[in-house]
Amino acid sequence: MKLYSLSILYKGATRVNLLKAAYDVSSFSFFQRSSVQEFMTFTSQLLVERSQKGSRAALKEQDYLCHVCIRNDSLAGVAIADSEYPSRVCFTLLDKVLDDFFKQVDSIDWPSGNPNTIQYTGLDAQLARYQNPREADPMSKVQAELDETKVILHSTMESLLERGEKLDDLVSKSEVLGTQSKAFYKTARKQNSCCEIM
Known about the structure:
- The protein is an alpha+beta fold.
- Helix content is 53%, strand content 20%.
- The protein has a 5-stranded antiparallel β-sheet with strand order 2-1-5-4-3, with helices on both faces.
């Protein structure tokens, strides 16, 4: 699971402004990184441009999932991740980032802002923190713990069943042994009864 890009944009009446962005393109070849970053910026702007205010969507493109969230105040967020990354975690991250951005950056700066003029530093930290969704998102952490508990429970049940089968074998052997012991006792008694002294 990998989160590649996190962008904050403003959806204006005629165009979309990129306000701030953070990228993790370390998994790409050094020579491809700038092109990949440009493509992610272009894709983010295109998604916001073609989406309605007050909407959210997840779009799949080859092995990537693009998550877009546009608030009614025209502030938008886009997260680009691989196809394994949970969509719920992406939308939680986008909501958190957009709320934080809204509190720190005045809305007057949004229509004319760009990455060089907007003073917001939380994006890189959030991108790094959410690389592992299980650590960053409490719901994912609980789900992972539940999955782990389920695996342990299944292995415990299997070992109990194996032990139960072994106990059944021992019980059946003891029943056979009990029958043989009784037969031996009767035979020994008969043998000893012929040697009684009168």
